[in-house]
């Protein structure tokens, strides 16, 4: 059973993102980049399924600039067997990524695609769902537990106020939530081993996909700064402030 894991290169979650002075986007020049955290969870899950003898191969895919190779090497250091880079300078939107992944699914025929539930840069939460729709496959999003069986997967997912368990037919798309697992740290020997694993590069045109953006970003702005709080002496003063200053009661 082959598992395909899309991994996105995003600004590291420890970095405080800065909006470009002209408001056209986020400044990523000289900023530390890393694998999207939900995708790390996806790679870990796929590798655990391989270690358990359920999956036979884990293929990591990244779409974007040449530097996405680093993201693929990071996935291979966790345990993915090989990587595919779909290289383009065009800023990719979820629909374009979903179409690229569809082309790769048609070629690679994985039993499962495990994606992150969302990329922490665009927070779109769209790619996995769009891929499932384009493939006509079932989807189980926000997975907190995944069990693969004969031609079927059982997925526990986090929903408002509880957990829902779904059974879906394979092939399918699963997207990971935070509590699915805790990704391992890549060891130095595994980082070295990953450098020798196969990494293929293709262009969107090779896959017959037009990745031209369909949406235009009009403006990106910092959230307004929060003003400092004040300490009140007693409940009466609090109520007075809520009534007369904040005017919320
Ligand atoms: P999004 O819909 O942008 O929030 O992304 C959801 C998931 O789709 C991510 O966690 C990745 O697994 C996958 N994905 C999105 N963009 C890319 C990309 N450029 N390359 C590889 N995978 C991606």
TrEMBL record:
Annotated InterPro entries: ET-Flavoprotein_bsu_CS, ETF_a/b_N, ETF_b, ETF_beta_N, Rossmann-like_a/b/a_fold
Gene3D superfamilies noted in UniProt: HUPs
Keyword field contains DNA damage: no
Cross-referenced SMART domains: ETF
Alphabetized UniProt keyword annotations: Electron transport, Transport
Positions of the Electron transfer flavoprotein alpha/beta-subunit N-terminal domain: 23-211
SUPFAM superfamilies: Adenine nucleotide alpha hydrolases-like
PROSITE patterns: ETF_BETA
Pfam families in alphabetical order: ETF
Keyword Electron transport among UniProt keywords: yes
PANTHER family cross-referenced by the UniProt entry: ELECTRON TRANSFER FLAVOPROTEIN BETA-SUBUNIT, ELECTRON TRANSFER FLAVOPROTEIN SUBUNIT BETA
Family note: Belongs to the ETF beta-subunit/FixA family.
Protein name: Electron transfer flavoprotein subunit beta
Taxonomic lineage from the root: Bacteria, Pseudomonadati, Pseudomonadota, Betaproteobacteria, Rhodocyclales
